[in-house]
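By convention, the token line describes the chain's fold. To illustrate:
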Amino acid sequence: MSVATLATAALDQWALDFDGNAERTLRSAEQAKEAGATYRVSERERWWRKRRRRSTKRADLPSPLLSFPFQLGPELELTGYGCEDHFLEPDTEAGAWTALARVLSRGASDGLLLDVGGLATHAGARYNVRVFCLNRRVLLVRPKCALADDGNYRESRYFSAWRLEREVERYRLPQVMIDLTGQTDAPFGHAILQLADAALAAEACEELFTPSPPHAALALAGVDVVTNGSGSHHQLRKLGTRLDALRAATAAGGAYVYSNQRGCDGGRLYYDGCACVIVNGELVAQGAQFALAEVDVVVADVDLGAVRAARGARASSRAQSASSSTSLPRIDVDWRLCRQERGRPREPSRPFPPRVHRVEEEIALGPACWLWDYLRRSGATGFVVPLSGGADSAAVAAIVGAMCGLVARAAAAGDAAVAAD
């Protein structure tokens, strides 16, 4: 078996909270590494951890054998999704890159392939991007190819869609990143990261739901793992639709790692998290949909050999792969997604049925979580609930009651952040 351990996170980010967003991104990477230690710790890793604890300059001693090879975060996690017209201001982009530099300087990408959501201006156009980093280096800046402009979304007001699907250009990094990494530029475009033992590539949020989604071409090109950092808001029964799309994307063979924003972000929408991992059409890891924790890391052990076997077993997949005209650029990365371990190999995570709330639970929990985020971040001290005795005021009282129950249970369970708020 070729087993890769993949981590993804739902983060409760806040629009323009660059310091807080960076801290939560850093915490997600640290939690992934700490969780990995409970799965497997070699003698050499123990030696490195002991040495790191003794050092006063922790960043000077990056461990070569950290437990988690990959970590994914949500869309626009460095800025928050709901910045609206602040996306048009250069300071917002500068704040995002400064936040990323802070995350990398504190060791988040040391021994970890990190996929972070940000924004970048290239050749006069502003893009919603994924930034792939490893060992304090930028491997790829991947711009979003299809923008969300329906319903609640107006992404084309702020961003351009990347149309050069088979080209990679050079992107001049901001000075804060040049000072940190020592590299002046990085590849920019829709490309595949060709690792030493696997191929990995991204699609972004809306692209999953387009008539010709990137994951189809990526599968034909032999990509083993597709990632998706998303900003998908809650509406009734939407989680089922989302999971159906993810399972369909991998039904013919594939591993899909999905991350989502969590919280109200400062606007009217509530993003319902539920980070997950899908393998060959089956769910193998799923985070909470409604919860108050600011960082929710989800982990799965994925057998990439089973992905390749599923594709190879289908004659139609083999035929289309052989005749595919897709020739996406590849960026070589000297990094193994699957660890070589002594003794008995790790067992892949087993599939299970999706956990989907009842409609009544969604109606209560979604608005309750939004109310809590708004209350604690607005600086208010509470809610005043006028009661007339009618259906509307009764419903509002019930939702506020659900919020109080969530808060009390989270604090009692030991969530220090909720207790402090």
In short: DSSP finds eleven helices and 17 strands in the chain. The longest strand covers residues 113-122. Confidence is low (pLDDT under 50) at residues 37-49, 51-67.
